[in-house]
């Protein structure tokens, strides 16, 4: 059986060589029949039926929010150029993309030479939403569900407040492992959820994973073995203020960012998944405009929620070695599995060797084969910078993936699929989660190089 870990005991197991190499590396409803949907990275601006935020312009023309198809964007470079204007992309199609914009933003893009076609029945107020806020857990009911699980399985589950959001809400990390009270010398795996406020299905994914691991321990041999040999961390909501704001009115606001005011501006919020401290703001993959949905923040980790999670990850360095070996950041939508880097089109770059890339690909494709998602490098869609995946890999040496959950396109409900699909779409990722857990002790085993990297 496992033995407790001495708090500062140096470790020479599984990933010591790679840690030395990388530990310091830092430097709706309309279906287009002829379009091959490649997916949507979770980078959209407020959705078609969004309630205008009070901080937005008071100009009525700017408050008319619609979804548009932008034609003539066939390559990742084309899409990156559009994203570089500060416009976020809802969905990537074969030779076009879908975006959401108010009238002023649409006019600005047309002046830049983009061809925009409004989609039918997507004007603000149209009855297109596929769900109601009551279909999903609120922040309060999510917290209650976590507390209930801790109470029912005290030997398997514990939780701790790792910090607080801008508005003072607890950000909680939940640990799941046999002998959970002891910090043991085992691979650790992190799952993060709800960086983007409106992506409520990801919180349901966290609660599903928590329930499945605990209820099946001692019943399912595979789950039992994993909890006996792994330490699993879940952060069910990275952005609790945004989650609360998106639903508190009783109707979805299609809010994406956190709720932190921006100095010198009436615009609210930072895109937490552009606020991480690796290649922050480097490459046209985020916006410096406070009104943009992809606003990167005033500086790396300027979002308090980003800093809380980054500090938690840094706290898992024990004896000079990062204990977390693998990670999934859950988003919606697009049914994708993405890996680093997002800031460059290159398959390999500083801190990402051919072997590293091959291990990412092998495990990513195995997971995708289990859930039917599309596996690809993040920048195959378009450039993003300051993302959690790039930081976790380049700065901490953690194999970090993004899962873009259901649906594949806007016709499935976009960011708000109906509650009737929650059980199906969370369970759909059970096998993929188990695959990552099983590979987490040596990701290089997937390419036949266990002896080289994991001795």
Fold topology:
Layout: H1 16-22, E1 65-71, H2 76-83, E2 91-92, E3 96-102, H3 103-111, E4 116-118, H4 139-152, E5 157-164, E6 170-176, E7 188-193, H5 201-216, H6 221-229, E8 231-235, H7 240-247, H8 304-315, E9 317-318, E10 321-322, E11 324-332, E12 336-339, H9 354-371, E13 374-377, H10 388-396, E14 399-405, H11 422-427, H12 430-439, H13 450-453
Parallel strand pairs: 7-8, 7-11, 11-14, 12-13
Antiparallel strand pairs: 1-3, 1-4, 2-3, 5-6, 6-8, 9-10, 12-14
* Overall CATH class: Alpha Beta
Distance between the termini: 20 Å
- Shape by Cα distribution: globular
The total beta strand count reads: 14
Please give the domain count: 1
What is the tally of helical segments? Answer: 13
CATH level-two architecture? 3-Layer(aba) Sandwich
Strand content: 15-25%
Report the helical percentage.
Answer: 25-40%
- In spatial order, strands of the major sheet run 5-6-8-7-11-14-12-13
Mean pLDDT: 86
Largest sheet: 8 strands, mixed
Radius of gyration: 21 Å
Structural class of the helix and strand makeup?
Answer: alpha/beta
Poorly predicted segments: 1-62, 122-128
Domain Peptidase M14: 135-440
Signal peptide: 1-42
GO cellular component, one term: extracellular space
Active site: 404
Summarize this entry quickly.
The chain is built from 13 helices and 14 strands. Helices cover 29% and strands 16% of the residues.
